[in-house]
Amino acid sequence: MSVDKIEYNNGHLNVSANTDTILTKTINGLTCIWKGKVIDNNQSIKYSWQFNWNEILEDVESFSGHIQVRRTGLSPVETTRFDVKLTKQNQIIDKVVVNTNQCSIPAIAFDFCFVPSYGLKEQICLEEMFLPSEKTDAVLVVDGKKLHVNKTFLSFHSDYFTALFSSKYKEGQMDEIPIEDVSFKDFGLLLSTIYPDSVFPTDKTVEKLLELADRFLMKSVIRHAEHHLLRNSAIQHEKMISLADKYKMRKLLKRKISDIGCIEDGKKLKLSAEYDKLSNDAKAMILDELLI
């Protein structure tokens, strides 16, 4: 059975100059071996996480997500986040951070969240999806390939296709209608999101789906993407805000802005590459959140 998201949150543990492997944990087939040690005469703390997913039977190609470390003995609690891409078995993530108060036995807690990317075995066959049948009544030509589709079905989901199939446009009278500037794979992925045997958005596909849903006026695909980003995604927080603003996903935008917990989080967002892409309305919402 496919897993949408793997999350783990441990209680606090102590590290020192003498600790090595502190914790081994398997969650939904993803095994994490965590090591922590105080180094450099209490000046720094070295963390190490080793991940493997041999116990997962599905064809997982990679994981995207983050690891977040908390110094629970400090007031306020110090939090450090690392964005991580796991692409191979037994991959090791090493990080060295400053030991803020030079404590010899600091209390540490960490959590992680990862979203898997599945291989082609998890995907339906696009060629089979667009074969002619008694239910199809139009042919789209995308990237040199013919897609047999149903006009009413596409029009129901897309104002773009409502217009395209109408008698007002020459395309509506053509036997084969070309769709330019999109690959067969990407266009097939877009339509597969609304077809009965749906392929749901993933962190790997969601941005492309939003781009195409915006172009082809498919509000239902944007809603599918927003649902994924709200519930199953490990995409970086700043990127989520940018996507929510660009594609007018109001619920996601409000949720992610409300997650900005302090001035420091706001400063991190402003320094990110995503901040300059935000609308003035989104920037105003962020300011309002920080001033509450």
Search tags:
3 domains; 12 strands; Apoptosis, Tumor Necrosis Factor Receptor Associated Protein 2, Chain A; BTB/POZ_dom; SKP1/BTB/POZ_sf; single chain; 4-stranded antiparallel sheet; BTB domain-containing protein; 10 helices; 5-stranded antiparallel sheet; 292 residues; alpha+beta; Potassium Channel Kv1.1, Chain A
Report on this structure.
It is a single chain. With 292 residues, the protein is an alpha+beta fold. It has 3 domains: 6-121, Apoptosis, Tumor Necrosis Factor Receptor Associated Protein 2, Chain A; 123-229, Potassium Channel Kv1.1, Chain A (2-Layer Sandwich), CATH 3.30.710; 236-291, no CATH class. 30% of the residues lie in helices and 30% in strands. It is built from 10 helices and 12 strands. It has helices at 126-129, 151-157, 159-164, 184-192, 206-215, 219-231, 237-246, 250-258, 263-271, 280-291; strands at residues 6-9, 13-14, 21-27, 30-39, 44-52, 60-71, 78-86, 91-98, 107-118, 138-142, 145-149, 176-179. The strands form 3 sheets. Strands 1, 2, 6, 7 and 9 form a 5-stranded antiparallel sheet that branches. A 4-stranded antiparallel sheet has the order 3-4-5-8, with no helix packed on it. It has a 3-stranded mixed sheet with strand order 11-10-12. α7 packs antiparallel against α8. The longest helix is centred in the C-terminal third of the chain and has 13 residues, at 219-231. The relative contact order is 0.10. The mean pLDDT is 89.
